[in-house]
């Protein structure tokens, strides 16, 4: 059951319409929908404690009006107190009445809880609750959310969307006070609340005002994009309102209050009427502000256009979005079917979004607008076309531009088509459905423990096999319970049959949940980040969530598991990973990555370099837990959230910004630096596609897989990523094998042997690590790490690649000793350190460490980067 409340305190407004559009998605999925219109919230609407009468006729029949009971019995709570509190907050900047506010908020909270219990509420939608107009209700709702969510273990069951906020609606009037709005109830950072902003600018402002809030998404006002047409249901609209069939019609849907500047429309009609048979239809409640209504009608009469201006009263909301109203009256869509233009000449700082513009675009009707404050952010900067008024009243230039659009049918059609196409992309209904599906509408199973994140880009050839391997995961002698995990497939702009194959698989395998999400920024890192965020947020909303206000943990740990579509997963991959994570309590579980030797039967030199690398990796991973690779690893959801998720790093390459591809490794470093432990799970095996080596073989040999000359952007080595789907399959020459191994081992040692102890020098005191290094080397490393850290004045190695310089320095200073230990542990064929860079060969031994520091810090030339440059492709 969904219960919502609008802080607008009117039977029909933009807030109410947006509630209905969102609630419709819940209704279509079987939710019963209840709405409180908020009459007992805002003092300035004059409806405090006024009973509902015929308001329901304006709303769809599937909405029930359910206000909070018995508010009139709360001692001292009335419109006069609400006004007094607001005046204190805004005018005086203090809250002398705080004890009274808290007392009444507690009483209101009890009544909110009683209503929710009686309705058995499972979802709550608050529209515009973070305003100082009635902070008692805001506080009461916040208290009720915490108590009710904990009592019923509901997870993130509240969607809290602010349309106006202090910086979006009439900021110039100062009606909400001044930044930083100290007496406005701060946003509640709770496991039970998901905040929604209308656009990215609003999201950024909200984050700046409330940096403690982590869970906030953008949900723009969305619309079903279908052209409005004249039909049997609305054919009589013009006749019923005395508008000639031949007249050009401008539509204005609005509240009739001064801030909406309807006077501009009347002036515009007066100017247009000199050359054009034009009418203006104003849809809105003429009784809301009687003084403004009389002023406008007098203005129309004075300008000689009273017979051209129709105040049509209430129109029902767009029935395409919310369904037909119970009363069966004309709707906004009926008006748009007859309109030639839609007007939105609002005041500069009043509107934050502009629903009439969105409705016009969706109905394929051109619009005109004032240049209100948020217009560029919401519409203008996206390329929508419309005459824009930048003055107080219509200028001759603006009037001529409107007249041309109004009278040129070809221009009208082209403009409407252009805007409709853009609107479908930016404000189509699918964007709301996708977001709400992700957050609340498709709940995660209560027994689900893992989300497998699978980034895909044109993987039609590989996808069926990897999906089948995921479906047939095993646990002991039988199939792994499919209720324990789900698949999150992240499509990264595939142009082949990838998505169609995924949808077909989901339809054919309904017992395993598969979700398809999309990431438009190209790059496997971006796709993996999106998939992990999707799964992390969904898991926070599981019905099994606890009442801990600081976390969204569940009774059982939840894991985000990374996989890759061109790799092959062992049947025991997931079950062994799950068991190891549960048993160890680790933050990250690292899989065993391997190649099959038979794929390299005719390439012994290449296999020799690969197998030596894998043997070294096995030893290091067993000692230190290793670092994650996107081909297969698990991270506990809370550890993921603490680290801020996957971070994307950008560098310039050939004059353009490109994203870095070692997100998995760097993410592991962030988790480790925040205290998260790692566990190596050798039984959780991932077979690497040998085509990766083939596709990047020349870069492996030359040491350019991580770029060159200081550019550390890793080439995407996934076959076909650069448009080249072919790879030369060959063995290495003796010289190439020597170089490939040198680059591989130079990459391996700093990252796998030195970085773990650099992040946690205490490891050097543990017995397995001391046994591997030997006590003298372990002690020397610990002392040198302390000296380097002190010298560099660097304590935090979590920023991407901040670890490189100290790791490289330790490599050069201890290379001989490190290779000696590798030979003793892994095998004599590991050999000795590759030759030093030429510039270090002649340095006096007593100054070697000094010049190593210069070399490793020389980021302008990238010499050290090139020296270590293979990037561990093996």
Search tags:
Rossmann fold; 874 residues; single chain; 4 domains; Glycosyltransf_2; Glyco_trans_2-like; 32 helices; Spore Coat Polysaccharide Biosynthesis Protein SpsA, Chain A
Structural class: alpha/beta
Helix content: 40-55%
The total strand number stands at 25
Largest sheet: 8 strands, mixed
Radius of gyration: 32 Å
How confident is the prediction overall: mean pLDDT?
Answer: 86
Organism: Streptomyces luteolifulvus
Keywords: Transferase
Protein name: Glycosyltransferase
Pfam families: Glycos_transf_1, Glycos_transf_2
SSE inventory with pairings:
Elements: E1 2-6, H1 14-27, E2 33-36, E3 63-65, H2 79-92, H3 98-119, E4 123-127, H4 135-152, E5 158-161, H5 165-168, E6 193-197, H6 200-209, E7 216-218, H7 237-240, E8 248-253, H8 262-272, E9 278-283, H9 290-302, E10 309-313, H10 319-322, H11 332-338, E11 341-344, H12 355-363, E12 367-370, H13 375-378, E13 388-389, H14 396-407, H15 409-427, H16 429-441, E14 450-456, H17 463-471, E15 474-475, E16 478-479, E17 485-491, H18 498-508, E18 514-518, H19 524-540, E19 559-563, E20 568-569, H20 573-584, E21 588-594, H21 604-624, E22 632-636, H22 637-642, E23 650-653, E24 656-659, H23 663-673, E25 678-687, H24 691-695, H25 697-702, H26 734-759, H27 767-773, H28 775-792, H29 804-825, H30 838-841, H31 848-857, H32 863-867
Parallel strand pairs: 1-2, 1-4, 2-3, 4-5, 5-6, 6-7, 8-9, 8-11, 9-10, 11-12, 12-13, 14-17, 14-19, 17-18, 21-25
Antiparallel strand pairs: 15-16, 19-22, 20-25, 21-22, 23-24
């Amino acid at each position: 059951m969904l219960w919502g409340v609008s802080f607008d305190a009117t039977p029909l407004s933009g807030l109410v319409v947006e509630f209905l559009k969102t609630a419709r998605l819940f209704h279509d999925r079987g939710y019963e929908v209840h709405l409180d219109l908020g009459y007992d919230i805002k003092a300035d609407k004059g409806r405090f404690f006024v009973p509902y009468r015929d308001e329901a006729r304006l709303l769809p029949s599937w909405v029930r009006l359910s206000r909070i009971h018995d508010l009139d019995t709360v001692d001292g709570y009335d419109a006069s107190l609400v006004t007094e509190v607001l005046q204190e907050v805004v005018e005086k900047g203090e809250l002398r009445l705080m004890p009274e506010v808290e007392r009444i908020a507690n009483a209101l909270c009890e009544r909110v809880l009683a209503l929710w219990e009686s309705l058995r509420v499972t979802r709550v939608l608050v529209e515009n609750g973070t305003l100082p107009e009635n902070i008692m209700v805001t506080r009461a709702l916040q208290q009720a959310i915490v108590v009710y969510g904990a009592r019923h273990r509901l997870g993130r069951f509240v969607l809290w969307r602010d349309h106006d906020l202090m910086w979006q609606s009439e900021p110039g009037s100062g009606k909400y006070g001044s930044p930083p709005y100290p007496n406005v109830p701060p946003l509640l950072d709770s496991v039970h609340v998901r905040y929604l902003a209308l656009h990215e600018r609003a999201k950024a402002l909200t984050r700046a005002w409330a940096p403690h809030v982590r869970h906030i998404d953008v949900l723009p006002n969305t619309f079903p994009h279908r052209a409005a047409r004249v039909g049997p249901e609305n054919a009589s609209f013009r006749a019923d309102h005395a508008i000639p069939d031949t007249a050009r019609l401008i539509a204005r849907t609005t509240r009739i209050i001064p801030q909406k500047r309807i006077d501009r429309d009347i002036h515009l009609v007066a100017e247009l009427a000199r050359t054009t048979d034009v009418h203006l239809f104003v849809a809105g409640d003429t009784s809301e502000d009687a003084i403004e209504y009389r002023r406008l009608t007098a203005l129309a009469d004075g300008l000689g256009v009273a017979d051209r201006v129709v105040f049509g009263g209430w129109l029902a909301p767009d029935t395409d979005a919310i369904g037909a109203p119970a009363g069966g009256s004309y709707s906004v869509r009926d008006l748009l079917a007859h309109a030639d233009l839609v007007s939105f000449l609002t005041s500069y700082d009043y509107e934050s979004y502009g629903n009439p513009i969105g409705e016009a675009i969706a109905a394929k009707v051109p619009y005109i607008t004032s240049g209100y404050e948020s217009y560029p952010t919401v519409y203008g900067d996206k390329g929508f076309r419309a005459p824009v008024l930048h003055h107080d009243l219509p200028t001759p230039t603006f009037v001529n531009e409107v007249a041309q659009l109004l009278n040129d049918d070809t221009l009208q059609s082209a403009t409407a088509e252009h805007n409709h196409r853009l609107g479908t992309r930016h404000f189509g209904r699918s964007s709301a459905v996708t977001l709400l599906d992700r957050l609340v509408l498709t709940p995660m199973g209560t027994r689900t423990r893992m989300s497998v994140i699978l980034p895909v880009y044109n993987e039609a050839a590989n996808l069926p096999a990897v999906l089948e391997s995921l479906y047939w995961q095993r646990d002991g002698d039988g199939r792994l319970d499919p209720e324990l995990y789900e698949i999150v497939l992240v499509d990264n702009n595939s142009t082949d049959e990838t998505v169609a194959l995924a949808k077909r698989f989901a339809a054919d395998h309904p017992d395993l949940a598969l979700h398809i999400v999309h990431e438009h920024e190209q790059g496997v890192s971006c796709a993996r980040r999106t998939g992990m965020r999707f799964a992390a947020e969904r898991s926070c909303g599981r019905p099994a969530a606890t009442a801990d206000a600081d976390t969204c943990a569940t009774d059982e740990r939840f894991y985000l598991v990374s996989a890759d579509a061109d790799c092959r997963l062992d049947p025991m991959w997931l079950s062994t990973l799950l068991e190891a994570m549960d048993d160890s309590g680790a933050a990250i579980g690292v899989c065993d990555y391997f190649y099959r030797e038979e794929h390299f039967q005719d390439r012994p030199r290449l296999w020799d370099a690969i197998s030596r690398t894998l043997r070294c990796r096995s030893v290091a991973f067993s000692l230190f837990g290793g670092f994650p690779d996107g081909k297969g690893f698990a991270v506990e959801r809370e550890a993921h959230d603490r680290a801020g998720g996957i971070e994307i790093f950008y560098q310039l390459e050939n004059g353009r910004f490109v994203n870095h591809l070692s997100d998995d490794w760097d993410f592991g470093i962030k988790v480790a630096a925040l205290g998260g432990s790692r566990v190596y799970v050798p039984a959780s095996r991932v077979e690497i596609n040998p085509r990766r080596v083939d596709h990047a073989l020349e870069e492996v040999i030359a040491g350019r897989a991580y770029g060159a000359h200081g550019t550390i952007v890793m080439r995407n080595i996934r076959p076909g990523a650069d448009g080249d789907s072919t790879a030369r399959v060959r063995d290495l020459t003796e010289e190439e094998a020597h170089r490939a191994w040198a680059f591989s081992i130079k990459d391996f040692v700093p990252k796998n042997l030195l970085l773990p102890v650099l992040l946690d020098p205490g490891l050097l005191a543990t017995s397995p690590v001391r046994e591997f290094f030997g006590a003298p080397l372990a002690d020397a490393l610990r002392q040198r790490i302390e000296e380097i850290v002190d010298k560099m004045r660097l304590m935090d190695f979590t920023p991407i690649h901040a670890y490189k310089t100290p790791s490289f320095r330790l490599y050069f200073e201890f290379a001989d000793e490190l290779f000696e230990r590798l030979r003793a542990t892994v095998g004599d064929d590991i050999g000795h350190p590759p030759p030093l860079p030429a510039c270090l060969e002649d340095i006096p031994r007593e100054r070697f460490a000094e010049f190593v520091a210069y070399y490793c810090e020389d980021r302008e030339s990238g010499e050290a980067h090139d020296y270590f440059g293979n990037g561990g492709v093996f």
